[in-house]
């Protein structure tokens, strides 16, 4: 799978003063005028962040304001921004990091507001949506976040700047993202064991079900198997019958799957999709393999496309 270059987050201490009431932001009229001049004369080499009102004195309030107004000083009619990723792409990465600190409703508003502002220039708009693809959707991105990406897709589908043809891909991705979304019921399917016996996801009875869709033999899959096996929390939860692990092979090369059966613990359920229904009907998004889902006893999705570490952390807090 092709990897794309991902810009790293700036160290937290660079953004932290903006979220703390440390009087580092400009607070008088003269400073505001000086800031405006910088924006007018140098829109490319810097991204000027908004001045957070001094009356917002908690970290939560300041993060909320910064998320909503992060791009206020950017002139999206200037397409030259797209040629300076050291400014705009780094700014996007830090913006997404800030969205992790605010409620989902605020993040949704912030993203949709940004894209509305960017409708002034289609080149800028398309550039921002390409950054969303790269950082929020690409399976190679450590910042991948489906919930934030859904906000972007919703904005694209309502945008007057895109024609019907340009909305075909966002529409398809939005439909797939809605399936097995956190807080919804996971889609049921039938799996087949090595001995030919069959079962369904919904027939599994346990407080939690860990669905592990994988291709045995792939490096990332092997690393995830190792991490799950070595987790004391996950191992104990399985031993106490609080978690059932369903490892599912979605492809057709059964010889390859059978060759790696010994890689999986005996207390896992290890099956394959005999009729290829998951792939053919797009029941689950398989753009990233492996993928982990944590489900509750009613098969409601608690974690989607999670890491072994995130699964472990959730179980530590809830079991």
TrEMBL record:
Keyword Transcription regulation set for record: no
Secretion signal, residue range per the UniProt entry: 1-27
The Thioredoxin-like fold domain, residue ranges: 208-301
Ranges where the DUF5106 domain occurs: 25-180
Database matches in InterPro entries: DUF5106, Thioredoxin-like_fold, Thioredoxin-like_sf
Pfam families (UniProt xref): DUF5106, Thioredoxin_8
UniProt keyword Signal, yes or no: yes
Keywords: Signal
Protein name as catalogued: DUF5106 domain-containing protein
Species the sequence originates in: Bacteroides eggerthii
Lineage: Bacteria, Pseudomonadati, Bacteroidota, Bacteroidia, Bacteroidales
């Amino acid at each position: 799978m092709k990897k794309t270059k991902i810009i790293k987050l700036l160290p937290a201490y660079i953004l932290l003063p903006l979220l703390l009431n440390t009087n580092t932001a400009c607070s008088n009229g003269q400073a505001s005028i000086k800031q405006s001049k910088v924006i007018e004369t140098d829109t490319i080499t810097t991204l000027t962040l908004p001045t957070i009102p001094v009356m917002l004195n908690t970290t939560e309030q300041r993060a909320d304001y910064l998320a909503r107004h992060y791009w206020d000083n950017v002139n999206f009619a200037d397409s030259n921004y797209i040629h300076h990723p050291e400014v705009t792409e780094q700014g996007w990465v830090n913006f997404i990091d800030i969205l992790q600190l605010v409620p989902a409703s605020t993040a949704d508003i912030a993203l949709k507001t940004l894209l509305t502002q960017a409708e002034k220039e289609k080149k800028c708009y398309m550039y921002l949506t390409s950054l969303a693809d790269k950082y929020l959707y690409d399976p190679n991105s450590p910042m991948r976040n489906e919930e934030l990406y859904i906000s972007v897709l919703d904005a694209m589908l309502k945008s007057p700047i895109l024609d019907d043809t340009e909305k075909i891909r966002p529409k398809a991705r939005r439909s797939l993202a809605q399936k097995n979304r956190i807080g919804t019921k996971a889609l049921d399917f039938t799996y087949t064991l090595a001995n030919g016996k069959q079962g369904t996801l919904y027939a599994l009875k346990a407080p939690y079900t860990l669905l592990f869709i994988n291709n045995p033999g792939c490096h990332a899959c092997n690393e995830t198997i190792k991490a799950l096996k070595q987790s004391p929390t996950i191992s104990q939860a399985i031993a106490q019958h609080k978690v059932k692990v369903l490892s599912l092979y979605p492809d057709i090369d059964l010889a390859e799957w059978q060759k790696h059966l010994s890689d999986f613990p005996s207390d896992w359920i290890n099956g394959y999709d005999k009729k290829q229904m998951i792939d053919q009907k797009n029941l689950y998004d398989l753009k990233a393999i492996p993928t982990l889902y944590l489900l509750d006893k009613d098969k409601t999705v608690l974690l989607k496309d999670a890491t072994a570490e995130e699964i472990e952390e959730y179980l530590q807090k809830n079991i």
